[in-house]
Backbone:
């Protein structure tokens, strides 16, 4: 598993009646692959995993694996409240042909240091799939600390970290402590260029769902040391990237996908599509971005 490059956390596409829209889903996947992403992440927050049935998650994973057919790795997100459920999905992911896992700390229960480490180890020991730990204390209330990561070094298949602490210096802090033991991928769109400059290996991206070429271009330019070229795109992109750090990021990004022609805005309740002044405001941000798009 090569935890480098851009990994879109893709949205799950629905028809207006709430059923899965695999045709539009694959249209978006095609756009991601054409842009040069290095992996696809299923079942994250943007994927609305919490409102998918077990059968839908299985179908979405198996169909994506078959459609992508090894062009890039498929990573399945695991966000569960019970350890046995997380272990189930780790085993099921392997069975369905996924290449790796993105793993959150236990959901809904504020686990302590020992419990978080035990949870991660239990999942890691249940599979040989490579794992990326998702460290997002802002949204999910559990900080995976450096001492925790130190204990997890004994799990060889825990290989990467989705860095979403909002603390840019944490990239340097992790490098100072662990060297290259863990790959680090930025998980916050509005900090992506900054973290890549500081040595992050990749970018788990959100607005890539609507703007794949620009996202990949920023990554490639930074890694080539072409900072001024990257910055010109990043400055254009920032008002759009800020849609990723709002509680309604799913609705915002899905609307952006619809306006760029590679998605639909339909979400599942309790989420509702945007209306009124909020919709007008978000549409205007997206339309300005499209009108001034560097690669249009």
Residues:
């Amino acid at each position: 598993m090569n935890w480098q490059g851009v990994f879109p956390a893709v949205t799950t596409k629905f028809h207006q009646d709430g059923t899965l829209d695999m045709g539009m889903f694959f249209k978006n996947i095609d756009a991601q692959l054409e842009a040069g992403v290095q992996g696809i992440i299923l079942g994250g927050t943007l994927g609305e995993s919490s409102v998918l049935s077990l059968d839908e998650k299985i179908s979405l994973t198996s169909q994506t694996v078959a459609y992508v057919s090894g062009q890039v790795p498929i990573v399945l997100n695991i966000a569960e409240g019970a350890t046995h459920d997380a272990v189930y999905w780790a085993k099921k992911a392997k069975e369905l042909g996924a290449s790796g896992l993105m793993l959150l700390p236990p959901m809904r229960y504020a686990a302590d240091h020992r419990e978080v480490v035990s949870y991660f180890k239990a999942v890691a020991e249940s599979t040989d799939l490579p794992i990326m730990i998702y460290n997002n204390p802002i949204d999910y209330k559990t900080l995976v600390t450096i001492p925790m990561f130190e204990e997890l070094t004994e799990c060889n298949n825990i290989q990467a970290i989705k860095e979403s602490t909002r603390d840019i210096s944490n990239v340097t802090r992790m490098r100072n402590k662990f060297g290259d033991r863990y790959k680090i991928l930025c998980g916050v769109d509005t900090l992506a260029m900054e973290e890549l400059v500081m040595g992050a290996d990749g970018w788990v991206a959100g607005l890539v769902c609507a703007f794949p070429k620009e996202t990949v271009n920023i990554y490639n330019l930074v890694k080539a040391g072409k900072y001024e070229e990257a910055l010109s795109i990043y400055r254009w992109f920032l008002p759009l990237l800020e849609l990723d750090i709002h509680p309604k990021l799913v609705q915002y990004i899905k609307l952006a996908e619809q306006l760029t022609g590679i998605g639909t805005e339909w979400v599942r309740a309790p989420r509702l599509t945007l209306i009124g002044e909020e919709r007008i405001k978000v549409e205007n941000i997206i339309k300005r971005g499209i009108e001034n798009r560097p690669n249009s």
Q: What stands out?
A: The chain has a mean pLDDT of 97. The domain at 5-230 is CATH 3.20.20.70 (TIM Barrel).
